[in-house]
Please model this.
Amino acid sequence: MSTALPRISVLIPVYNGEDMLEKAIQSVLAQTYPAHEIIVVDDGSTDGTPAVMAKYAGRIIAKRIPNSGGPAGPRNEGLKWVTGDAVAFLDHDDIWFKNKLVVQAEALREYPKVGFVCCDFAVRYPHMNYKLVKHFSILRNRNELNFDEPLKKPPLELLLKEHFVGTASNVLVRKETIDRVGLFNPKYKSSQDYDYWLRCAVVTDFFVISDVLLYKKNHPSNISANF
Model:
């Protein structure tokens, strides 16, 4: 078992996120375990997003691409620049708690065969009148998951029954797993992350952390809210 925590590259795709991007970046900078690098990819924003990114010159790796029409484009661009041992995904409208990276990094250090780590998160779902809930608490098949250790059941089997991961912002993936899986599929708009987790489940073990380590925002411009 390695004694060193993995170097974590944080990848933030953003489109017209001037009102929320700064809080996301600040939540990364406030981590108790510092990120190896923060890569922010602007997917052709037409608002003040570039100005927000410019405020963090020297602290983030800022990239801009023509609008690709979905999160796969900026995520794939960001993966080209990753130099860390693992990649943590963060949507520009979500906020991490301060211990998010260290808890997940420790899971990778303790379990070398695990290439995918996710955690619980707090969220306000529109279909639940925006009541604040823990994502794992409302899963239909929660009793099939085991927490805070590698999953005992095949992750592909569990994911096909229910998308227990729930979002991209709670995911940490080893770079070697990403190298095996490849890029996100741009033909999927609202489910490209779920597709990617399914592909990860074919090649690596999963680890599900029971702690709530982030707050996921739901708002009308969420792709996941506009099926």
In short: The chain has a mean pLDDT of 94. The two ends are 43 Å apart (CA to CA). The CA atoms of residues 49 and 118 lie 28 Å apart.
